[in-house]
Amino acid sequence: MQHIPDLSLEDAADTNLVASYRAHLDWQTPCDSRDDGAMLAIAGANGFPGPYKNVAVRLDRALAPRDLLARADAFFRPLDRKYSVAVRSRVDADLEAHLAAEGFELRAESPCMVVERPVAVRAVDGHVRIARLQTLDDVRDAVTVGAQAFATLGLPVEEAHQMLARHARWLDPSVVGFVAYVDGAPAASRPSTRRPPPG
After folding, report:
1. 121 lies in some domain
2. Using 50, 70 and 90 to split pLDDT, how confident is the model at 42?
3. Are residues 137 and 95 in the same domain?
């Protein structure tokens, strides 16, 4: 068995982020991708240039920004797709600067959030029931909630349904998800991928 050194919290968060992109390969349909070890590129269910729909992610920090864009262009151009580039400020400062020089626009920012210790479990109101995703009905309820969240951001509801179309994939052991019901109606959801243990 190969020894895998412990990751820092930041490196673990990066690993989890890339895993979430790979998970979306199995959740939306149709979906095409290219993973050459240095770059992951995803062409999702339609041409929307969102972060999980049509996106390029640098996997190898040694890959020069100009080479990343050349590989991404070679992948997306035949598909007639625009695309986003995922940038992590901690490791991709050179890439971020290059993208700005090339005319890319920063459209969204999201902080890295890491839980360093177990969170205290709070009491749940009697009107609320939290269920782990175990059936296709649970998954459909979670997707419904996600679609409603898209609407609050001004995004088409159909985007959520296309991104999360392969419902059965949500029941894979590598996915842990929950849906919260308020008075029996789905009100919140949270799916996440987990890295399998080394072996």
Report:
1. no
2. very high
3. no
Contacts of 141 (CB under 8 A, 6+ apart): 179, 181, 186, 189
> What pLDDT is attached to residue 3?
40
What's the sign of the alpha-carbon dihedral 135, 140, 145, 149? positive
**96: pLDDT confidence band, cut at 50, 70 and 90?**
very high
| pLDDT (average), residues 158-186 | 84
**What are the strands, taking DSSP E only, across 70-157?**
84-86, 128-132
Domain count of the fold of the chain = 2
Answer yes or no: do 134 and 96 share one domain.
no
CA 186 to chain centre: 22
State how far the alpha carbon of 153 is from the alpha carbons of 48, 52, 140, 156, 169, in Å: 15, 16, 20, 9, 25
Contacts of 107 (CB under 8 A, 6+ apart): 84
State yes or no: pLDDT of 13 exceeds 90. Answer: no
- The one-letter amino acid code at 67 reads D
Structural contact between residues 87 and 99, judged by C-beta atoms closer than 8 angstroms: yes
Tell me, what's the pLDDT at 4? Answer: 44
- 8 Å CB contact between 97 and 68: no
Beta-strand relationship, 185-193 and 84-86? unpaired
pLDDT at residue 76 tops 80: yes
Task: Tell me which residue range forms the domain holding 28.
Answer: 9-101
Q: In the 8-state DSSP scheme, what is residue 8?
A: P
